[in-house]
Design brief:
Oligomer: single chain
Strand order of the largest sheet: 2-1-3-4
Largest sheet: 4 strands, mixed
CATH topology of the largest domain: Glutathione S-transferase Yfyf (Class Pi), Chain A, domain 2
Helix content: 55-70%
Radius of gyration: 17 Å
Number of helices: 7
CATH class of the largest domain: Mainly Alpha
CATH architecture of the largest domain: Up-down Bundle
Distance between the termini: 18 Å
Structural class: alpha+beta
Order of helices and strands: EHEHEEHHHHH
Strand content: 5-15%
Bound molecules: glutathione
């Protein structure tokens, strides 16, 4: 049985829950009260020195970084559809996983953390930086989804789960996707609804 250290508004935790639900992997959630600073307390720092959720635990094995957790679960449970083995297909999934962490996520955090979760403490300059970068990021998604139902082909992979969790997060700031990205996102939501 896996334990996932989790916070309900975390896009990084959400993508892991999505995979476990969709793949039927048994797990339990351990709520981390981030709104009370539990993620910065010594007990949690011992689990993840980065003071971040999610953290996956399985016996004495502990893993942080959401995309590493997704890959680990796919390997452990032979989820080849979610993380295909052929080198080029896997590389395409990895490309989007890395793009999500390096390109989309910082922009989403700039906007959503600062305009929603930090309230009065949010930095308007950071929000402006995020809003300026967002159209370029969304255009890249839009281009990818113009001729493909999912990011790495005709079927969903962990890349879609990872990116979709950030699109959900943008919804907190009332930002919705359009064009080809909108039906893709609806497909992702429908998958998750069907699994829960
Ligand atoms: N790269 C990490 C990012 C995790 C992350 O940023 N988690 C946020 C919640 S969505 C967090 O715990 N933030 C608290 C902090 O950074 O102190 C991952 O993919 O797991």
């Amino acid at each position: 049985m896996y334990t996932l250290y989790h916070f309900p508004h975390s896009q990084h935790a959400r993508r892991v829950v999505s995979l476990m639900e969709l793949a039927g992997i048994p797990y339990q959630l351990q709520h981390v009260a981030m709104d009370e600073g539990e993620h910065a307390a010594p007990a949690f720092l011992a689990r993840n020195p980065n003071h971040q959720v999610p953290v996956l635990e399985q016996g004495d094995f502990r893993l942080w970084e959401s995309n590493a957790i997704l890959r680990y679960l796919c390997e452990q449970h032979n989820l080849d559809a979610w993380y295909p083995r052929p080198a080029r297909q896997r590389a395409r999934v990895d490309q989007w996983l890395d793009w999500n962490q390096c390109r989309l996520a910082p922009t989403v955090v700039d906007i959503v953390l600062h305009s929603v979760f930090l309230g009065d403490q949010g930095d308007p300059q950071v929000i402006a930086r995020g809003r300026q970068a967002l159209p370029e990021r969304l255009a890249i998604l839009e281009q990818a989804l113009a001729d493909s139902a999912f990011l790495a082909g005709d079927t969903p992979t962990i890349a879609d789960l990872s990116v979709a969790s950030n699109i959900t997060q943008l919804g907190y700031a009332d930002i919705a996707v359009s064009g080809h990205t909108a039906p893709w996102y609806q497909r992702m939501l429908a998958l998750e609804t069907a699994a829960t």
